[in-house]
Structures are given as structure tokens and as C-alpha cells.
Design goal:
Length: 87
């Protein structure tokens, strides 16, 4: 599309943090979706790519979180749910 947009929504309550990212620049190939949270995997060319989602995966693992990815021809939606640590 001519007008590409990324929308980020963060919701927090006493038990969890939910982060939703919607990338309206088109979908992600299902073959890449399976590996997109691994270091070095990117839909963009060039060196030094594919770090951001792997770091997100480390945080998801650390906080016993969950992630859900939905992708269509128009957009990709990633929802991350992190449980807060109660001290």
C-alpha cells in the first residue's frame, strides 16, 4: 500500500501487560511466520537484521508470556501477553 502504518497498543492492569502491534505494510509469508522470533530472521534484506523479535521472544520467555501472530494480505498483528511478577 502507499500509506503504511504501524499501530502499537499497550494495556496494563494489576496482573498483566498486553502489547499489540499491527503492521499495515502487508502480510508475512507463513514460512517466515514459523521462525520470525528467531535471531537473524527478517523479511527485509541487509545485514544486522532480525534482532527485535528475537529480543521480544526472550522477554516473553522470561515472564512466562504468550504471543499470537495473525497475518493477512493487508496487515500483520502480533499480540504479546506478559504476566506481572508479584513480589
Amino acid at each position: 500500500t502507499d500509506e503504511k502504518r504501524i499501530v502499537v497498543d499497550i494495556f496494563e492492569d494489576e496482573e498483566k501487560i498486553r502489547i499489540t502491534v499491527i503492521d499495515q505494510a502487508g502480510g508475512i509469508d507463513p514460512k517466515i511466520q514459523k521462525h520470525m522470533f528467531e535471531r537473524g530472521i527478517s523479511t527485509k534484506g541487509g545485514k544486522s537484521r532480525g534482532t527485535g523479535l528475537s529480543l521480544a521472544q526472550e522477554v516473553i520467555t522470561l515472564y512466562h508470556g504468550e504471543k499470537k501472530v495473525q497475518s493477512s494480505k493487508e496487515e500483520t498483528r502480533i499480540e504479546i501477553l506478559l504476566r506481572k511478577v508479584v513480589q
